[in-house]
Design a protein that fits this description.
The complex is a heterodimer of chains A (258) and B (166).
Chain A: H1 8-15, H2 21-32, H3 35-55, H4 57-60, H5 65-101, H6 113-128, E1 138-139, H7 143-154, E2 169-177, E3 182-189, E4 195-201, E5 209-217, E6 220-227, E7 230-237, H8 241-255
Antiparallel strand pairs in A: 1-2, 2-3, 3-4, 4-7, 5-6, 6-7
Helix pairs in contact in A: 1-3
Chain B: H1 2-22, H2 25-41, H3 52-78, H4 98-104, H5 108-118, H6 124-131, H7 135-153
Helix pairs in contact in B: 1-2, 1-3, 2-3, 3-6, 5-7, 6-7
Classes of the chains: A alpha+beta (258), B mainly alpha (166).
Chain lengths: 258, 166
């Protein structure tokens, strides 16, 4: 007998009608010689048909209004939010500009917790990123240990996002004192030596989320956001806002999966 | 906004999948609503030009997993719930369908694969991407789901005339 090897995956694909023409012919020939499998695959086809006929009627049911409303009212809501963020961004920019002139730390007083986190992230970046010999406490060669250690200290599972796709690789990280507790600080570097830091705090409280905000102090730009109890800030100096946004977006997508 | 329109258009398909996934209508529509809310809030993460349907089903999968996990905690607190009793009972006016019940008895991860392949008619690659699992895992779960379903349906309607080969 000259049988071609037919795998279980081939049989499944055959039942689903997903095999290319020539392969399908071959599998059909194989099934002709294996009646038990043929019977089994036929039952799979029937089950699939039965499944579709059982549930396809849902497609024709009128959609409950509450479901469509989720999108419709959401649209209005989001437009309002976007307008709010833009206004907030302008306000922050104005405050920061004004405060820099007055040589006071921007964003520090009277801003909410996210803004003060952004300020601390900027200071941390300015402090550690110029370090040549000791930029981090634990290097990327011990990444698993680093993440486990910081997770333990912050009391929540952290992740160091992979930023190779946007040109940055992990240098390492350190533990920092935050406003009310420990903070995790990850440092990344591109091949031109530009550094980006990710500041993570886990004590933002609950039920609060914000989307991206941007602030700039001197040459240091920061994108920051809050996802329930976790606050994140992606910070760098001497790269454009667009480049930093690109990096921050990559981090955001990994840290806040859909 | 174009995505909003497309999201609305996809609602019937989300409802069909959700119905098969969780069984009863109210729970299924709750799942759809949570999915839409989350999708709407996270729409900026969707990359234009990619498959919105696959992305939406990924969102639904994540929402579902979170909901099941949350209800598991309650279950174990209340009592040791038998694993087969995860589905809400059917409404009394409804005919209890054997196939529906059998699907409910499949392990959740196998059920998801079977339904995406059968109802959504996704390619195996799309299923792998949607659920975030390797394609080999898609194939083995599909195969196991069908095997179990076939055994369960034995003697009931569709597969009645077929013998189980042990």
């Amino acid at each position: 007998m000259s049988e071609q090897p037919v795998s279980e995956a081939d049989l499944q694909a055959y039942a689903d009608g997903k095999l290319p023409e020539e392969r399908r012919t071959a599998v059909a020939a194989w099934l002709a010689a294996h009646p038990e499998d043929a019977e089994r695959i036929e039952s799979y086809r029937q089950l699939a048909a039965e499944l579709r006929s059982s549930y396809d009627s849902v497609l024709d049911e009128p959609v409950p209004e509450r479901l469509e409303r989720t999108i419709r009212s959401g649209r209005v809501w989001q437009a309002a939010m976007v307008a709010g963020w833009v206004a907030l961004g302008l306000a922050l920019g104005a405050i920061a500009g004004w405060q820099l002139h007055g040589s006071r730390p921007a964003l520090a007083p009277s801003a909410d917790a996210a803004d003060s986190m952004a300020h601390r992230a900027v200071v941390a970046h300015a402090t550690y990123s110029p370090e040549v010999r000791h930029p981090v406490e634990v290097g990327a060669d011990q990444e698993a240990h680093l993440v486990a250690w910081l997770s333990k200290r912050l009391g929540t599972q952290l992740r160091a996002p992979k930023l190779e796709a946007v040109g940055y690789s992990l240098v390492g990280g350190r533990l920092l004192p935050g406003e009310n507790g420990p903070v995790a600080h990850f440092m990344y570097q591109c091949n031109r030596g530009t550094r980006v830091t990710l500041y993570v705090r886990a004590d933002m409280g609950t039920n609060r989320s914000t989307a991206f905000r941007y602030a700039r102090e001197g040459t240091v730009g920061v994108f920051y956001w809050v996802d329930s109890k976790l606050g994140y800030a992606v910070t760098s100096a001497d790269i454009s806002k667009e480049d930093l946004l690109n990096v921050a977006n990559a981090a955001y997508q990994q840290l806040n999966p859909p | 906004m174009n995505e909003a329109k497309r999201l609305v258009e996809l609602i019937p398909r989300l409802r069909r999948y959700a119905r098969a996934l969780v069984g009863d209508r109210a729970t299924a529509d709750d799942l759809v609503q949570d999915t839409l809310e989350r999708a709407w809030a996270k729409l900026h993460l969707y990359r234009r030009g990619t498959d919105l349907r696959a992305w939406l089903f990924t969102v639904m999968h994540n929402v579902h997993v979170n909901r099941v996990r949350a209800s598991r905690v309650t279950d174990t607190l209340e009592d040791e719930m038998p694993e087969l009793a995860q589905r809400a009972p059917q409404g009394d006016a409804l005919l209890v369908r054997d196939l529906d019940r059998a699907i409910g008895r499949l392990p959740a991860e196998q059920r998801a694969v079977l339904l995406l392949v059968t109802l959504e008619e996704m390619s195996y690659e799309e299923v792998a991407r949607t659920l975030g699992i390797p394609i080999g895992t898609v194939m083995s779960r599909l195969s196991r789901a069908r095997d179990k379903l076939r055994v369960m349906m034995q003697g009931q309607g569709v597969a009645a005339k077929l013998k189980v080969v042990k």
